[in-house]
Batch of 4 targets.
Target 1
Amino acid sequence: MDQKQLIEEIIKLKKERDAIILAHNYQVPEVQDIADIVGDSLALSKHAADTNHKVIVFCGVHFMAESAKILSPDKTVLLPAKDAGCPMAEMVTADRLREMKAQYPEAAVVCYVNSSAEVKAEADICCTSSNAVKVVESIKNKQIIFAPDQNLGSYIAKKVKDKEFILWKGFCITHKRVKEDEVKKIKELYPDAKILAHPECEPEIQALADFLGSTSEIIKEAREIPEKDIIIGTEEGVLHILKKENPDKKFYLLSPGLICQNMKKTRLEDVYLSLLHMQHEITLDENVRLKALKSLERMLEVR
Ligand code: SF4
């Protein structure tokens, strides 16, 4: 099948199955274009919670599809690329988190959504990079265990000064690839450009950026600033929407390393096969799901 036929088949199957396709901003352009909703983790979680469709096809990585299942247990949630995982999410386990909780009994556990359902079940509340500061501010405890992203945790710690943070030592292998000398070189090449970066980058890269935010905040900032040259410090998939929305601006990737192999695993063929064979369905232990649901619902209540 060529691409046009694949797209036609996906649209046909989507209707037959009563499905909605959600795609993360880091997906390949053709997958973003076939999706009903494209967004970051927070936006997609909200859509997963609100949708009336029977089937959710989640074009992203495993923890995202799991979050959709936690929020919508009566829906069939499919992950088209079975082995699309998130190395950061795998850096924390429920057992190790329980050990840390025992060490800091007074602390509240804030868990980045980039984590498994079992880990979310151990947390008091979840957060995304869009709402992390507000989530932490909403907590009464003085001590906060933040897992698994150390860089996002240290970014929040700088903003919320009246808390004591115990940071898990996890990281995003994609954002960690950005090197200081790459930032300096690209700044020399485009001296008038603004650098918009994700807080999953290392602190020394964060310090060199003009703006820090989640993918949706970066997209909004790029739309609003007057600069015509913009350097993007997050996964390259976001360039697709940035270029579409801002045809008069030029975008440059901060580092060629900003490509997440796991996010690129989902192809149109996978979306088609997922709908055709109803594969690969996400299932969860109900006890774990209910506990993880509390953490996600508390997050969604934070305004
Ligand atoms: S970009 Fe980083 S955090 Fe996101 S899925 Fe890839 S490895 Fe995980």
Target 2
Amino acid sequence: MDTKIEAIGAGKQKASKILRVGFIGMGGIANHHANLYKKLGGVEMVCGCDIRPEANEHFKNVHGIQHTYTDFKKMLKEFKDVDAIDVCTPNGVHAPAAIAAAEAGKHVFCEKPMAMNAKEAQAMADAAKRNKVQFVMGFQHRFEPRSFAIREQVESGKFGKILYVRAQALRRRGIPNWGVFGRKELQGGGPMIDIGVHILDTAYSIIGRPRPITATANTFTYFGNKKSKVKSQWPNWDYKTYTVEDMAVGMIRFDTGTMLTIESSFVAHLEQDVFNIQIFGEKGGAIWSTSDMYFDMGTYMMNAKPAFLGNWNMWEYKMTHAIEVFRDGRKNECPAEDGVNVQKMLDAVYASAQAGREVTIA
Ligand SMILES: NC(=O)c1ccc[n+]([C@@H]2O[C@H](COP(=O)([O-])OP(=O)(O)OC[C@H]3O[C@@H](n4cnc5c(N)ncnc54)[C@H](O)[C@@H]3O)[C@@H](O)[C@H]2O)c1
């Protein structure tokens, strides 16, 4: 991974030329991206598509996008003057939108998870390759300062062989009450594919992207499909259409021998939310949330912590990185291949839960 981050930061974009970006899907996350494009500069938001006319109106009025459509195929056919498409739809539309954009010769920036499953994800990666366009996956936690700090120690061998990784994305009560996050047919799954994917990608990128070979897992639905009177941050989710898991736990084996457990939930009965990774190596270990690291030095067990981690913002890094990959040919630090591999692990977690046994990952 490229650790040169000097160029990252608001207002630091020295645009050699302007990148023309179009959106497919203009809801919550697209708004966030649009605000960041404006803040970072070097980008013109030229077109956008949403099936909701009110989203198109909003993007016209708030973000100045003049050319809006309700059908992305029509947009890609009619509006040619765009360099990259930012895919921000629900998961089920990522593959058709990204493939259509690649076929139209546009670079693709795709929000997480890459797709509903690995088959779709692979088709997206293939479409980008076939059409010689760049594909950047929209994971951001791999770009946090603490991710770089721990990744560097792993890469330099300070922890020795990585034995075990514990990745957790657990909310005490956090079923999204917007969008379609509870609908398996539109999202592919629940907390595992929605928030587990973030911590899984981060852990996977930190330990050097080894090849996953098997998974054993289970999923549980016990809460989200019922009405609840318990007060919580996001009440009144649509329990009637809720068909995803509330919790998924899995164990993944890599070809390096490393074991990784992943725990993910919208509804875990625990004191407070956990979003964390612990790494256990032969010679050292780390806790991602605090960036504490543990080694033996001489005759002592030592606790280490970076005195200065860097102070960039992961979202600005993520967006700047994508802009520079598309516009300036910067090395892609979050390629389609990583999205496919993460998706294979997600698929295996769901497949193992369904089968009730360990499954192999092709
Ligand atoms: N990186 C992150 O941390 C992060 C955070 C939130 C969401 N996301 C991802 O972003 C995606 C969207 O999430 P969101 O929270 O913005 O959801 P959202 O429901 O707010 O927005 C999705 C938008 O897509 C539109 N849409 C649906 N089908 C479409 C189609 N066929 N063509 C065009 N537009 C279509 C919807 O009308 C809606 O406006 C999801 O894949 C989600 O996982 C990522």
Target 3
Amino acid sequence: MRTPQQFLDSLDDGREVYYRGRKVENVAKHPVVGVAARHAAKLFSFERGFPSEELGEEVSQYYRFPRGAADLMARHKLVYDTTMRCNGVFNISQAIGSDALFALTAVSKKVDAAAGTDYSGRVRDYYRHVATKDLTVAVAQTDVKGDRSKRPHEQPDRDAYLHVDEVTDDGIVVSGAKAHTTQGAVSEEVIAIPTRAMSERDADYALACAVPANARGLKFIVRPIDELEGNSSNVLSGKDFELETLTIFDRVKVPRERVFMLREHAFAGALAVTFATYHRFTAVSYRAATSNLFIGATSLAAKANGIQDASHVRDNLQLVIMYKELMRMSAIAAAQTYVEDGGLAIPNPLYTNIGKLYSNQNFGRVVDALNDTAGGIVSTMPAQEDIDNPEEHGYISKYMTAATSGDERIAVMKMAKELAASSFTGYLLSLMIHAEGSVQASKLALIRDYNLTEAEALVNGVLGAKPAEKRP
Ligand SMILES: Cc1cc2nc3c(=O)[nH]c(=O)nc-3n(C[C@H](O)[C@H](O)[C@H](O)COP(=O)(O)OP(=O)(O)OC[C@H]3O[C@@H](n4cnc5c(N)ncnc54)[C@H](O)[C@@H]3O)c2cc1C
């Protein structure tokens, strides 16, 4: 198991990263990108070890294959606790990579059985490489996709989806780009998997592979971190945030042993969905922890304003508590009623997707609840520079005084502002809808897999055997 510093040192590996139009020489030392690197590094200061029988040594618990309900419950707790220790901000560093490795393990066996390939052995070797070296892994699933009404092979620019350019003696060459890759620029490995089901004509896009983050031709363009740079009174983003990248593959060479799917189009959908199910289980687990930020800020803002006993404020708090606990309930239900697949426990997709959908559809109300409780001050409070200016501080503190001292209320309202009325709020509003798959993706999964037989039989029973004949 590595230390935070060993991890940070490993990021100085010649990777190609851009931030606000400039190349970043060393991501860990960059004033902004470095915060995301140090956030990732926190993982290495936590107790994560478990003795792996498969690998014959102690590795991170993130790389523990879930074999049943107890393992999934432990994984839920691991993700939840890690998020809490990172100030309520998800730490994706080994979570998403292990989600992808579990999905690759399940699906590669099926591809091998159908197509006579040897992907499962390669996945096992790569798993050993990642787990025993305690590496962090970003997952690039979401392609840039071009015109959404067109399938991959119909796109005018074939780079809209990651695809194989060339098969060489020792591997493949791939091109295209993936969007929104969380922590791409500060991870050590990148796994690419398909974003959707593929038809035969999309075979070149049915591709899964892994490369180190410093692979030649791999380029990361980091999103602007407005929550840190545009809010001088931030209290959270200076400590923890995760970045996303536009991840460009410009003729990246992938050695054969790191290719896990190549043109087996019939299995692209299964890989996309199995990964999504694991990753949404991770999502409801971290989102439950992140919700504590909103519960805590709503409660403290109410107390600072002296309104904690008002009925509408209690309603606000109840709404945010329910949001959190529904995430948790869905994770627990999904773990307890897991689906067995070749010795792996996959979280129950129905309960996972219901939790994820609830999160998608109700996060806006959580933000509303905090805004309503905190008051307009979250939009209009003076900047940190004013709060720090001795000429102004006395006035600001005096006029911020409510049920608590002015300085105490300023501290709480800075947090409320960051959560409910800042660039970070905008980022979170988008994240809670799109990250870990769109609303539509969860709805489709829910309806597609729902067994309607029991409910229809009940209604048919009430109506009689042939309800249509009874009508006039
Ligand atoms: C903060 C954040 C972090 C993320 N992290 C990762 C990550 O680490 N790795 C990763 O791979 N991805 C990541 N994602 C990507 C995430 O999974 C996608 O944002 C999500 O799947 C939606 O895809 P999109 O953004 O391309 O939206 P779009 O697909 O462009 O969706 C926009 C709208 O178009 C609709 N739409 C799309 N296609 C069609 C169609 N054919 N017909 C009708 N309607 C359509 C959608 O339903 C939606 O309403 C992240 C996203 C966010 C916001």
Target 4
Amino acid sequence: MFGLGGDKEVVGLDIGSHAIKTVGLRSKKKEGAEQYEVKKIGYEFLPQDAIVEGTIIDSPAVVETIKMVFDENKISNKNVVISISGNSVIIKKISLPNMETEELAESIIWEAKHNIPYPYEETNVDYSILKPSESTKEKNLDILLVAAKKDKIANYSNVVHQAKKNLKAIEVDVFALQNAFEINYPEIYSGKTVAIINLGSNITNTVIIEKGTPQLFRDLSLGGAYFCENISKDLNVSFDDVEKMLKGIPVEGVPEDQFKNALNLNIQNALGEVEKTFDFYEAGEKSERKIDLILLSGGLSKLSNLPKDFEQKFNTKTEIFNPFRNIYYDEKKFDSMYFEEMPSLFGVATGLATRKVEK
Ligand SMILES: Nc1ncnc2c1ncn2[C@@H]1O[C@H](COP(=O)(O)OP(=O)(O)OP(=O)(O)O)[C@@H](O)[C@H]1O
Ligand SMILES: [Mg+2]
């Protein structure tokens, strides 16, 4: 959204609060369609309190980790696209009558001033025009208005500059996920209603896409870090030990069944939060709306029973999102764990890497 110019191949850099993920893609046209290949991939953990609730607290640690992920994976391309999310990013769908570009820009500023709960001067505003859906009258333009607080943008841009990378654009997590979904699931993207739920550490991004048109975006303050905090208090076990158990590593002295019960409470709570988003979506229109498929991504999607929990709760088919489903990679070049064990962690980074790979 917030493009800073340039049109080169970029590296998608997902600065999550638990780990930094990078993906570099190469693209070429094949039989009219874009074909992607993974050129570079990398993953590096961050110290626990480096980023808290979407704010970078320990910039030096984040800068070092960005440098490390580039160095260790021999990523020489310095052109990056990053993304931001959380409550300092506002996405609103508005509908405006069809008009000339200049007039449109003025109307959008007016809409932004009236729709965004922060002073206009403190935000950067961008927009994109959605392709007309079946339900919109032809005369109207559906527009996605995106506003991000300038201090949030500065907070994230600074670490990229300090890591000596060239920031080419700043995206929003949910748009990156949408891009990754579009290129990897083209038939489903254009034909079904799908909810993508990216369950991270501090933030859970949700987006509902109806036949290629995004209908609802929501970032929930929900994720693995909250799970760990809650369970750590309930069982009187350290955060780090809970985190290990969350990742399936047994910890001596912590009974497995107690952990499972505590984890289940957190999962049920998370399902309840997602339900509110789904209810809001379903109540949004007079015609009946139904989600055909749920795709889970992010660190918590690694919890082995989660797809089943979602299926039971929502009575909707649920799968793990694979951002490399339709992307070629040379198995000899990369550690197989990226594509076999942890693909769902790379949804945002892959979506970011598709942004400007045109040569
Ligand atoms: N097997 C696993 N591998 C990695 N993370 C896991 C695993 N199992 C559970 N998790 C949890 O998932 C979370 C990390 O997910 P993810 O990498 O998607 O978050 P993030 O993008 O770094 O954070 P955010 O976007 O919320 O700032 C952590 O809380 C971690 O404890
Ligand atoms: Mg994330």
